[in-house]
Automatic annotation (TrEMBL):
Assigned GO CC terms: membrane
One function term, GO molecular function aspect: beta-N-acetylhexosaminidase activity
Stretches assigned to the Glycoside hydrolase family 20 catalytic domain: 229-572
Broad enzyme group: hydrolase
All residue ranges annotated as the Beta-hexosaminidase bacterial type N-terminal domain in the record: 165-225
Protein name as it appears in the record: beta-N-acetylhexosaminidase
Coiled coil (residue ranges): none
Length: 598
């Protein structure tokens, strides 16, 4: 089978050449949003972005063209927008078609250039050089934090870090902020001042990075370093694409090298629930695999079937690995929207009399849990309890983003609930629901978290000391901070690493928020209003996986832009874009073992 596709303005031209006669095949694929055929075939079925197109009879060796476009305002921006996981279904047989070549166009990244300073990201708060250097590649220490750095160095191909015959290291307890440290480097010894495991660990990370970035020559002097924010995070969407547990462990290693300390694990969404919970086994069993013959079609898939799920031992291994790296893991369970998978498995979460026509931005109908249905609370409370107990961090992210317009307005049961509690709008009911679910989380002994929309509603939103994550821009985060919420800044225009780098149609990634270059990750101020300083507690990068069909596609999207996210999360002082690009070039030369990050 021969297959090709190209972007032609607002449409995509796909050409299929069969190697044998095929009678009325069905062309199946997914995309970045709802799609339809405009020529060469007839749209048969759509579920969100998953599309089936009826084709005429195909004759062996005769090319057939199909013209496809996005249904709505979406316009294909680059190769990532072309049909994902294309295949033909004919007479019960599935014939896979060649996928679009994936990956970032990195021609614009440039080459490694010399950097006159400490080649490390994030940059330390201060460095007082002693005008001397020492040759050191190993360090003598039996501290657990340095042992964790050693294990990380071995895993990532640096060859090691700790050695009893190495340069002597002394540890001194000193009253400092959590994760802060002072590092005094001299010819006869290295002294680490800190008050926490995190401080000692990051002192070790600094030594490991400097040794490898400066070819084993360590500059003498005093490094003083204190993180700007307590929350320095990176999010990964493992619902749209199942990443192998090892890939998550690799991501945690990368985060640790950049002094990031929060992993936001997004394993539940419209398309799948991937954690093997005991309370609702049918939820993950029926949604872990998508495609032909499964409950969920081949949404955002690399072919006619894809998927996987994470066992509790998988989760515990990830949690333990993260803890050694001074990283806490926060799970997300999604409510009330982005719940198509739950609604498919448990239709009782929907009001059967609901005649509303609300549709999500992804093109899904009926992807929202109804708070007036008893089954909804039975499910979300069971999930919150079991997931919360599994993750020792004590924080549970509840979702609460992208609620379709006028949701619940066609549901008699929801309208009755609104009347009972004096609620008038969709946002009022969402706020009431999130507040009630947050109370459950608090009773379970955890702190709730949610996306920015959870602040909406006449009741003031979710409340309950919840942390809110702003994503559409900084504005909603600032409003939430003014309302008394702790806020993590994650504006899509700067830290959504699934966005394409450039406007080139040969690039890869989304563009609904912006084109995000390495420079864009640092060209913003997380706390633009000084009086909100105590309420803005962090910065977090996001990676959504709608167009990711193989784990290896993750790394060139993250690296080196994650260096910019790490800089904004740790540094109070600005870093110039040119300096960051120069240091990033040196990071690309490290043997990180993360696949092709050039």
């Amino acid at each position: 089978m021969n297959y090709s596709c190209r972007i032609d303005g607002e449409v995509m031209l796909c050409v299929i050449t069969a190697d044998r006669d095929l009678n009325t095949p069905t062309f199946c694929f997914s995309g970045m949003g709802p799609m339809l055929a405009v020529d060469g075939g007839m749209t048969l079925k759509t579920v969100g972005s998953y599309t089936e197109v009826a084709l005429p009879n195909l004759r062996a060796g005769e090319p057939h063209s199909v013209t496809i476009k996005y249904d709505g305002e979406f316009i294909p921006a680059n190769r990532a927008w072309m049909p994902l996981g294309p295949y033909l279904r004919v007479d019960g047989e599935v014939l896979e078609l060649p996928p679009t070549e994936a990956g970032v166009n990195t021609d614009h990244l440039g080459k490694t250039e010399p950097f006159d300073g400490l080649r490390i990201v994030p940059q330390p708060t201060s460095f007082e050089p002693a005008n001397d250097t020492i040759s050191a590649t190993r360090f003598a220490s039996n501290d657990p934090a340095f042992a964790a750095v050693h294990d990380l160095a071995v895993r990532r191909g640096f060859g090691g870090f700790a050695d009893k015959a190495g340069h002597q290291v002394e540890f001194v307890e000193e009253n400092m902020a959590t994760d802060a440290y002072r590092l005094e480097i001299s010819a006869d010894r290295i002294t680490v001042f800190s008050s926490s495991y995190g401080g000692r660990f990051y002192a070790g990370i600094t030594l490991l990075t400097l040794v490898n970035m400066h070819n084993g020559t360590l500059p003498c002097g005093t490094v003083t370093d204190t993180p700007r924010f307590t929350w320095r995070g990176q999010h990964l969407d493992t619902a749209r694409h199942f990443y192998e547990p090892q890939t998550i462990l690799d991501l945690l290693d990368l985060m640790a090298l950049l002094k990031m300390n929060r992993f936001h694990w997004h394993f539940a969404d419209d398309e799948a629930f991937r954690l093997q919970i005991d309370c609702l086994p049918e939820l993950w069993q029926q949604t872990e695999t998508r495609g032909e013959g499964h409950l969920m079609p081949a949404l955002f898939a690399g072919g006619p079937e894809s998927g996987g799920s994470y066992s509790k031992p998988d989760a515990q291994k990830i949690i333990a690995h993260a803890a050694a790296l001074n990283i806490e893991v926060m799970p997300e369970i999604e409510c009330p929207a982005h719940a198509l998978a739950i609604a498919h498995v448990y239709p009782e979460v929907r009001d059967p009399a609901d005649n509303g026509a609300e549709t999500s931005v992804q093109g899904y109908k009926g992807n929202v849990l109804n708070p007036a249905m008893p089954k909804t609370w039975e499910i979300v409370e069971a999930i919150a309890k079991e997931v919360g107990e599994l993750f020792p961090f004590g924080h549970l992210h509840l979702g609460c983003d992208e609620l379709p317009k006028d949701t619940w307005m066609g549901s008699p049961k929801a309208r009755a609930l609104m009347a009972e509690h004096g609620l008038e709008t969709t946002q009022d009911l969402q706020g009431w629901m999130m507040e009630k679910l947050a109370q459950v989380v608090v009773r379970n002994g955890q702190r709730p978290a949610a996306w920015e929309e959870a602040a909406q509603g006449k009741n003031g939103g979710i409340g309950n000391n919840a942390i809110l994550f702003t994503w559409t821009g900084q504005g909603p985060g600032l409003e939430a901070a003014r309302a008394g919420y702790d806020v993590v800044m994650a504006p899509a225009q700067h830290v959504y690493l699934d966005m394409a780098w450039s406007k080139s149609t040969d690039d890869w990634g989304a563009n609904w928020a912006a084109y995000v270059s390495l420079d864009d990750t640092i060209n913003w101020e997380p706390v633009p209003e000084v009086d909100l300083k105590d309420r803005i507690i962090g910065v977090q990068g996001e990676f959504w996986s709608e167009f990711t069909t193989e784990d290896s596609q993750l790394w060139p999207m993250l690296v080196p832009r994650i260096l910019g996210v790490a800089s904004k999360a740790w540094q109070e002082q600005d870093i110039h874009a040119k300096d960051l690009r120069q240091i990033a070039g040196h990071y690309r030369d490290l043997p990180l073992g993360l696949g092709d990050t050039d």
